[in-house]
Amino acid sequence: MQNYINGRWTPSLSGETFSNINPADHRDVIGQFPLSGANDVALAAQAAADAFPAWSKMPAPKRGDILRRAGDIFARRMDELSRIMTREMGKTLTETRGDIQEAIDTAYYAATEGRRLFGINTPSELADKMNMSFRMPIGVCGIITAWNFPIAVPSWKILPALVCGNTVVFKPSEDAPHSGNIFAEILEEAGVPAGVFNVVHGAADCGKAIVEHPAIRVVGFTGSTATGTSIAARCGALNKKVSLEMGGKNAQIVMDDADLDLALEGVLWGAFGTTGQRCTATSRLIVHDAVHDELVQRLLKAAEKLVLGNGLTNDAAQVGPVINQRQLDKILAYVEIGASEATLVLGGNRATDGDLAHGTFMQPTIFTNVNRNHRIFQEEIFGPVLSVTRCSSYDEAIELANDCAYGLSSSIYTRDVNRAFRALRDLEAGISYVNAPTIGAEAHMPFGGIKGTGNGHREGGWTAFEIFTEWKSAYVDFSGRLQRAQIDT
């Protein structure tokens, strides 16, 4: 496996590589990928900078046509690609097909926006003068993403950036590098010219080089809050535009009038889908006293029946592996912390039965008697660990949900329409759901959070195009004389 720079597949200049290993079966080595550094990033950035003038001058609808073809190719290759992704990062095939579908939806949406990159025209304050504003591409974009949605999340950044006329240097996560190569294959087949899209594999040094390179003018990042804030500080010093999508500690509220069947389905999917490895995962369950005991009892019975397994070899698998040993160790450390704070009622151990011993599988884990001062209530774990907290009223539920450093997603289950709309107003999060879990974003809606989750930008939908464009104001004076704006008003 190689980097993709200026339309060619090439090894890293150092010749160093790293292994890509199946997290469901560590005996399965997917391949060796280039461990790239600053020199490789420099080659990719130069290729992107050289390709920018021609690509940015191509009419945006024509760029959109290329992305529409990319969507068609993703659709044609869905079954093949979903198996590649399941092998690489562990989600079940049902989930990786959804990952591909998100890229398809984003490609078609971005293609359409190629005809809708609207500007704003306003009347001039002077006679015989016209005012207008329009969007301009920024230049070379550096895209750094996580492993848990290795096709969908990059599509949220890469495809809007391209349709706006930018060129791209993309560093996939070292835990999901093969998916980055898939992106290059598909965009090349769709007709993206050489140099417009480049893939450079590597670890932290590679990401740092992308942030530092002077030709890269905007950075789009998805990952941990610690890394994201560090990138933001450096981009601030370099006067670069930066969009951050970082951590979450999302709460699902269940009120006393909730449909408990629906709430149970929601928390099972929200907490244990993708093995809890989503920034939008439901990691806190806040339940009204009146239904707490019943819901918890039903939750325990349902969660202990969840089937762990390798999605490629076990069609019944519902929960895949944790991405790697380092993350598994982090989760187990939080389980120890939780056991000292609250009551462990389910799971808490690595799963090692049969073939599970060959991968990094974690039992679905539930704590009760969790309060707001506990670390497992406040800190992101990024695994199949759910904390359950009691509340006695709507006001207390909202207060508990908002008592968190993050603000990505939120959810409330209630039959009271007034209470539902109050929650949409009161929950401190970039995304709120009513009678649905904290996961399930759609490609044509803004995605992102507040507080420790982001820096104000939103991916997805029309808002993504704000990240990858700059506004230009233009004035056309056809009066034939000097007019001095406010002086002559």
Task: Provide an overview of this structure.
There is one protein chain. This protein is an alpha/beta fold. It has 2 domains: 3-246 and 454-474, Aldehyde Dehydrogenase, Chain A, domain 1 (3-Layer(aba) Sandwich), CATH 3.40.605.10; 250-434, Aldehyde Dehydrogenase, Chain A, domain 2 (3-Layer(aba) Sandwich). It is built from 15 helices and 23 strands. It has helices spanning 38-57, 60-76, 78-89, 93-113, 152-163, 177-190, 204-212, 225-238, 260-272, 289-303, 325-341, 375-378, 394-402, 417-426, 464-467; strands spanning 3-5, 8-10, 17-21, 29-34, 120-123, 129-137, 140-144, 167-171, 197-199, 216-222, 241-245, 250-254, 282-288, 343-346, 350-351, 361-362, 365-368, 385-391, 406-407, 409-413, 431-434, 450-451, 469-477. The strands form 7 sheets. The chain has a 7-stranded mixed β-sheet, sandwiched between helices. Strands 9-8-7-10-11 form a 5-stranded parallel β-sheet, with helices on both faces. The protein has a 3-stranded antiparallel β-sheet with strand order 5-6-23. A hairpin with a 5-residue loop joins β5 (120-123) and β6 (129-137). It is globular. The protein starts with a strand and ends in a 12-residue tail after the last strand. The mean pLDDT is 97.
Let me know the largest β-sheet: 7 strands, mixed
Any guess at the CATH architecture of the largest domain? 3-Layer(aba) Sandwich
Can you tell me the number of structural domains? 2
Query: How much of the residues is beta strand, in percent?
Result: 15-25%
Helix content: 25-40%
- Our Rg estimate from Cα atoms comes to 24 Å
Number of strands: 23
Number of helices: 15
Which topology of the largest domain does CATH recognise? Aldehyde Dehydrogenase, Chain A, domain 1
- What does the overall shape look like? globular
- Which class of the largest domain in CATH terms? Alpha Beta
Largest sheet, spatial ordering of strands: 14-17-18-13-12-20-21
CATH homologous superfamily caption of the largest domain? Aldehyde Dehydrogenase, Chain A, domain 1
Unreliable stretches: none
Given helix and strand content, the structural type is alpha/beta
Residue-averaged pLDDT: 97
From the N-terminal CA to the C-terminal CA, the straight-line distance is 64 Å
